[in-house]
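Help!! Second protein's tokens look totally different from the first
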Amino acid sequence: MPQNTALTGPAGLDGRQDTPIGAGRPTDTRVDPYLGTVVHVVGTRQARPNLPSTGCPFCPGGLEAPEPYDVRWFKNRWPAMHPDRCEVVLYTSVHDATFWSLGVAGARRVIDLWTERFSSLGSRDDVDYVLIFENRGPEVGATIAHPHGQIYAYDHVPERQSRLLATGWRPELDADERYVAEHGGWLATVPVASTFPVALTIAPKVQVPDITALGDAARDELATMLVDVLERLDHYYGTPLPYMMWLNQRPTDGGDWPSSWFNIEIVSPWRREGTARFIAAAEVACNEYFNPVIPEMVAERLRELG
């Protein structure tokens, strides 16, 4: 099976690096020759359905879940990269569940599946970074309501993750007014300068590089934390909150990465109920952002919801 080429080779002035995606369909990876921005042009995803035409494909008996299950993963039929680099993770067979309604036991099953897929994908020679993430709600692009997340296996370390590693990111153990909650060895805080109105960071107070380094007790505590904060977020505006969540972890390119500190980011574009904060011209043009929501007020509200 053809593999994507790394992004380190020469790209020419137009920044194009065409790579095979199987069955003769190209994925066109381009790099801006002046800014270095990586763009994956995936025209095939224009043909993906916005909503299932009949039933939910993630419910038992559906297209992607023919048998009963607790948690499940499968290859994405509409991949953003090479088909064997994009996976879907189903959190539960219950269609109208939320992550927090799974309870600690259900959340722990998801964490265990994340760990298994991170180990499997990260062990490949052609995978340098495994991104586990979730888009929840149509406001952030989720086309199916059934609780699920995704995994992308990159053949390079993405630029944002590279910057976090290079600067030695670590959690704020004394966040003071931006403190939200802690469970066991885990801390939840609101970041000091998020570009999103609502933002939360979850991290262990003692450094671990990735999810595979967590023992049973730490995984249970993480499950407890996720159930807690995601329920608080759903009560923040009194209605289910659209959010994006992703795991920042050690790259799997064989490097040492001594600064890697596992953490989870959760962000929402809502500045008030049903109202998104749009990223506008001055922000896109200058890569400098204007957030109308005060981080300390977000933390205070989330603490109250505990």
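Here's the second one for comparison:
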Amino acid sequence: MVIADQQGRRLRPDRFANRIVAVTMLPRICDTICTLRIVDLDRSARLLPPEAARHVAFVAIDTAGRSGRALRRLATTLRLDRSRWTLLRGDTQTAWRRIDVIPPDADAPSHVVALFDAAGHLRQRYTGAPLDRERFARETAAIAALAKTAPAPAGSCTVQ
């Protein structure tokens, strides 16, 4: 399956290399709460110190079959920073299983935010609504500070 972003660009394996990545899902059954989760994440990003913010990418994986145009409209409506946010069209089950967030026979958790370090390791999972913005910002900044002391290998946080 080809995974493309809101601009229609094919996702390259090195797209998020050496960056901290926060991932959430946007399935059809969760339009309101999942959209609010994206807003929470975007507001959390504003709480990050500038040094940490430069190293963080935010990803929302749409599984509702929205077109690239619909994803661009959503990004515009939510006023998402295009340098920080990537909206992808993909399969929630496959995405969560590839990063070992859920077991093979479980339903995909649409309300989860997964935080990966610059080496692509899952470091934290956040659930609940609303997102605890201060905690997310504090922990993300701590992970960014750790990355400065130990650079990640090239090609980290890859998509297969």
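Reply: Different proteins will give different token patterns, so don't panic. Strands lie at 4-5, 20-26, 56-62, 85-89, 113-116, 122-126.
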